[in-house]
Structures are given as structure tokens and as C-alpha cells.
Design a protein that fits this description.
Blueprint: E1 9-11, H1 19-33, E2 41-44, E3 50-59, E4 67-74, H2 82-99, E5 112-118, E6 129-136, H3 140-146, H4 152-162, H5 166-175, H6 181-193, H7 197-210, H8 215-228, E7 230-233, E8 236-239, H9 241-257, H10 262-274, H11 278-291, H12 296-308, H13 312-326, H14 332-349
Parallel strand pairs: 4-5
Antiparallel strand pairs: 1-6, 2-3, 3-4, 5-6, 7-8
Amino acid sequence: MKIECIEKVIPRAQGSRDLRFAAFLSIILFLISLPSFGAYEVWNTPSGKAYDVYLSLKVTQKGSKSNLYVLSYKTKKNIHDRFGLVLEYYDLLTHFYYFHCPENLKNDKNSFIVIEAFKDPKSKKENPQARQFRKRLSELKQITQANYRLDTNRLKAFQAFNRKKWVEALSFFKKVKAKTPHDHSQIANIYLLQYKKELAKKELESALKEFPDDLVLINNLAMTTMMEGMFEYEGKVEYDPKKMQEAKEILTRAWKLDQKHWFTASNLSLLETKLQNTKEAEKWLLEAFKLSEESPELSYQVAQFYFEQKNFAQAKSYYEKTLKVLKELRSPASQKRVKSIESQLKLIEAKKTP
């Protein structure tokens, strides 16, 4: 396989079927995709690998139609392992080509993508190095064809899932031979979207026999267990205490396994919120934020929590922290959230809060 790249090493600065059921289901979807407009996203590529990715879009020149995408990701490889990094580049560029690159730019010879691999620093004083790789968008198709690690069944499953073709997606996921935890999570997700909570739970429990310490699987099992215990009584959503306790035990197990992952703390906060244990919910939410202060998703969650508790001074503080990060991003999702937060801040300033 011929591999060509233009690269350089640079220093990097640190840096039920009703609406209620649908709303709760979005929690599971959030867990599987992780975070939607935050500082980074987890990309589960068609090869079966997972990467923490930071993606931004910049216009190269004022008034120019050319676009420059900058894709940065954390690598576990030696930053000087040139061949190993190129394999990761090909993997990520394949994912970008199929799921992020606009259709009208796939043959654009004037637009580029810069992909950057970087290592976490060992200390706050140390600037980690990064290695860059640059390609025209029009060259991505050839790169995807050369990516021998791509699993076509997984790719087709992802594409069908994005089109909301649940039956088709499920069929392709089941054909994937070497399934990853994410594949099992997506299968469970499809069952939930079909309102088959028992099958979703069975899929997650089966997957955990193979991957007993996978935190996303454990968290999704806890959330699915909570959904199992949902029911409506006199127009209100109630929860089966036994199912809530079971979900709490599952999350506690996840927390004991690893106390550095924010989403377990965030889900414990959600569970305590449903149980109306406000102080416990606040404690876990702040713990989640402490573990991922870079994430505007979490600062937004904290702001919303305080807003709903009518603690508007704290809500304002966290809304402003969220805005500071989001305004540096160029994605439509982040700009939409900016407008939402600005509206909330106006309500607080005008004292017209609900």
C-alpha cells in the first residue's frame, strides 16, 4: 500500500411510546454517541476503533469558498511512530468522509482537512507534541478505498442507523464478526428505538459477559434498567423503586471500576434527580463537571440544573462558562445552543424566569 503524507511535528498548547419515553430514550442515545457539542466527540469508526476527536471548521480566507477542516485526536501511539499514526489517519479520514464531510465538498480540490494526532501532557507545565497530516477533500475517496481495516458490514450498519432504517441497521450489525462494545450498544439502542426494552437489556447483559468492565455498556444497562421501571400514574411518570435501586447498584459498580469518567457521575446525578434527592443529584453533577471541565455539555447541564432549582446566580455563572467555549466552535449545533443560552440569560437578567 502506498502511503503519502505531508506532516510535521509541532508543540501543542493544552487545552413508553409517549413523549416522556422518547425524552428518556435520548439519555441512552447521548451515552452512546458522547458528547454532542462538547470539546470532543468519541468517534467509533467503521473499523471498530474508538477515538477522542476535536473537529472544527474554518474558512481559509475571507470571502473564499475554500474550507479548512481541522481534526485533532488523542493517540496512544508514540508520536514518532509514523506508520502507526498514518493507519489511524486513514481510519479517521474514512469516518470523516462518510459521516462528516458535506456531500457537495467531497470532490472539492480547493478545500482541505488537517488531521492532528497529539499526546496528553504528563504535567501541566509540559506542552505535548502533535503530528499533522494534510489532505485535499477530493483525495478522501481514494483514502477510503485504501483503508483495508474498514468493516463494510459495520459501515452499512452505521449508515442505515443514521437514516433511521432500524431493521436494516440491526441486520448489518449482526453480521459484524468481531463485535466491539459499541456494536452491542448500538444493537441495544435499536431495540430501544423499537420499544423492545427487554431485548435491549438482554443484549447489554450478554455483551457484559464478554466485556465486563466496559463503562459505556454498564452505564447503558443502568439507564435501560431505569427505563424498565418507568410507568405513568395519574398523568405523572413514576419509577419502580426496585428498578431504581437495581440501576443505582449498576452505576455504583461502574463508579468503583473507574472514578475518572464523568458520565457515570452524570448518570448518578440523573438517577438522584428522578428520586428527587436534590443534594445528592447536585453532588454527582458537580463531580461530573470536575472530571471534565473542558466540556460545555457538562457546564450546560450544571447550568440547567441550577436554573430548574431557581438558583439563578449559579445558573448564570455556568451558562457563561458554556458560552465562552461554544463561541469558539463553528458547528451548527454549538451555534444553536449559543442562542438557547443567550435566551436563558435574558430571562434571568429580566427576572422573567418561570
